[in-house]
Amino acid sequence: MMFERVLVATDGSACGDHAFAVARSMVSRELGSELTVVHIAPARAKALDDANERLGQTVTRLAGEGVRARLVTPAVRFGGPAHAIAETADEVDADVILVGDLGAGPQTGAVSVRLLQTAHRPVMVIPMPDDQIVD
């Protein structure tokens, strides 16, 4: 099944990067699919800047390959990251939302669970492959 508008949320963690790779495999230049990358990161300015730069370069590379792609960095307001992701998905009319099952930070996995509860669109929670899980 191909989706026309795919949104992937990442926090820069290894699991977020894996969800991004899965989302990338779901979009097709030939079918005119669009990939929206939503970056939600901790409030550390340096980490946010580094991740935004890396993701921006990736989105630019995808655009160079003919994939319609964009990076969105919504402000996390009331409701936390899951609400910001769900709102962005509504704004871009995403057909599906992808998110990693484990993220960075003290509440690992909490965003994906909350997103399943709040989003008004299908959500795919992408687990890390067993051989990439670090205990």
TrEMBL record:
Protein name, UniProt field: Universal stress protein
Organism: Kineosporia corallincola
Family annotation (SUPFAM superfamilies): Adenine nucleotide alpha hydrolases-like
Domain UspA per the UniProt entry, residue ranges: 2-127
Classification via InterPro entries: Rossmann-like_a/b/a_fold (IPR014729), Universal_stress_UspA (IPR006015), UspA (IPR006016)
Domain of life, per lineage: Bacteria
Higher taxonomy: Bacteria, Bacillati, Actinomycetota, Actinomycetes, Kineosporiales
Similarity comment: Belongs to the universal stress protein A family.
Gene3D superfamilies: HUPs (3.40.50.620)
